[in-house]
Amino acid sequence: MTQSVVVQVGQCGNQIGCCFWDLALREHAAVNQKGIYDEAISSFFRNVDTRVIGDGGSISKGKIRSLKARAVLIDMEEGVVNEILQGPLRDVFDSKQLITDVSGSGNNWAVGHNVFGSLYQEQILEKLRKSAEQCDCLQCFFIIHSMGGGTGSGLGTFLLKVLKDEFPEVYRFVTSVYPSGEDDVITSPYNSILAMKELNEHADCVLPIDNQSLFDIISKIDVIVNSGKLGKTVKPKSLVTSSARALKNRQEKPFDAMNNIVANLLLNLTSSARFEGSLNMDLNEISMNLVPFPQLHYLVSSLTPLYTLADVNIPPRRLDQMFSDAFSKDHQLIQADPKHSLYLACALMVRGNVQISDLRRNIERLKPSLQFVSWNQEGWKTSLCSVPPVGHSHSLLALANNTCVKPTFVELRERFMRLYKKKAHLHHYLQVEGMEESSFTEAVSSLSALIQEYNQLDATKSMPVQDFPRLSIAM
């Protein structure tokens, strides 16, 4: 069994990470009722005997003593990390695996990347090495951050290069939360474009998440709850709504439910690595099968059932409807419509009581309505995990390498250019040591090159699919 380490950077990264650990603990508690430390739990947790001082307290098997998350928490403000450490998850995190400052990055990528990157590089490396040493077989780093602020975008992408240099063989999966057009951080387009260049160069896979899409999903859930048509009862063990308890004394805000959707995405993404199934998908297989070209590593994600993640008493979706939902624009975690764009490849990660025949039947049913590149008409990767999410009979995570991600990047570039043409707020960045105006031109050129690659793929949409002759085998 392999292990993964989660690195949560900045306010957004730590809030999503907090939700992830809360849900992961509840998921394993529902499956592992005997309290035995097994391979499934070891993928993200260490078992520690807290009575032993130092590193000798790790226990590889037997009863669970005290679970410690395989995590590194980084934020240049103390607020969110302190809330976590005072909340119900305080014992899950090792205090030696935290890095905090008090001043914050001031919504400035350059401060996060250049100033705090240099200042904390050795500490970050030390904690990453420590986490790696505590794994028998480290397979993946999951980085969770936002693109719009200073710490998440700047220090988050600095960390990505550190991981690539120090652990070149370990996969780097990045969950990046992109700002909406109504974002309250004026400099978020600068931060996002500067961060995008680093993601292009140093990530293996990026799962872009759009704040606006998350907000729209939560708004639709609220409408359903308040309409009274399907019952207003929210289940007591809601997977989206109940995780707010993980942060001490917090009133539940829309962000709590939004963060929980992203946490559920990560739970389903790692389910095959954590639980048994008739058709397992290793994390390295995602990159191998879905990323045909190095820079085109942005995967659009959709999650179903999605509205029932709010655990409103909505009648469960029929199995076939669940597959259809995964390809509708209402279920995408960025504002995109994959059915009207071009697929390079697609992965379906199914959990629960679903048969391989169900999977194959639905792929055959959906294939005529989906357009794949001519050279990869059979570009499907599938997995079946027998353990469903808590409170559900089945679920589906779809990951699509699809040109529908392009409008998100185009809009981001337009917002960047509106500021950059006026040179607005540029001086805040240029006064940081190591920052030059060429950093901006190189970053937007990198993004433009990525957009052009998607344009070239889109240009092939109308091309006829070549039916190559197959090798005949004499019997």
TrEMBL record:
<keyword id="KW-0206">Cytoskeleton</keyword>
<keyword id="KW-0547">Nucleotide-binding</keyword>
<keyword id="KW-0493">Microtubule</keyword>
<dbReference type="GO" id="GO:0005525">
    <property type="term" value="F:GTP binding"/>
</dbReference>
<feature type="domain" description="Tubulin/FtsZ 2-layer sandwich">
    <location>
        <begin position="279"/>
        <end position="414"/>
    </location>
</feature>
<dbReference type="InterPro" id="IPR003008">
    <property type="entry name" value="Tubulin_FtsZ_GTPase"/>
</dbReference>
<keyword id="KW-0342">GTP-binding</keyword>
<dbReference type="InterPro" id="IPR000217">
    <property type="entry name" value="Tubulin"/>
</dbReference>
<dbReference type="InterPro" id="IPR004057">
    <property type="entry name" value="Epsilon_tubulin"/>
</dbReference>
<dbReference type="InterPro" id="IPR018316">
    <property type="entry name" value="Tubulin/FtsZ_2-layer-sand-dom"/>
</dbReference>
<dbReference type="InterPro" id="IPR023123">
    <property type="entry name" value="Tubulin_C"/>
</dbReference>
<comment type="similarity">
    <text>Belongs to the tubulin family.</text>
</comment>
<comment type="subunit">
    <text>Found in a complex with TEDC1, TEDC2, TUBE1 and TUBD1.</text>
</comment>
<dbReference type="InterPro" id="IPR017975">
    <property type="entry name" value="Tubulin_CS"/>
</dbReference>
<dbReference type="GO" id="GO:0005874">
    <property type="term" value="C:microtubule"/>
</dbReference>
<dbReference type="GO" id="GO:0007017">
    <property type="term" value="P:microtubule-based process"/>
</dbReference>
<dbReference type="Pfam" id="PF00091">
    <property type="entry name" value="Tubulin"/>
</dbReference>
<dbReference type="InterPro" id="IPR036525">
    <property type="entry name" value="Tubulin/FtsZ_GTPase_sf"/>
</dbReference>
<keyword id="KW-0963">Cytoplasm</keyword>
<protein>
    <recommendedName>
        <fullName>Tubulin epsilon chain</fullName>
    </recommendedName>
</protein>
<feature type="domain" description="Tubulin/FtsZ GTPase">
    <location>
        <begin position="49"/>
        <end position="277"/>
    </location>
</feature>
<dbReference type="GO" id="GO:0005813">
    <property type="term" value="C:centrosome"/>
</dbReference>
<dbReference type="InterPro" id="IPR008280">
    <property type="entry name" value="Tub_FtsZ_C"/>
</dbReference>
<dbReference type="Pfam" id="PF03953">
    <property type="entry name" value="Tubulin_C"/>
</dbReference>
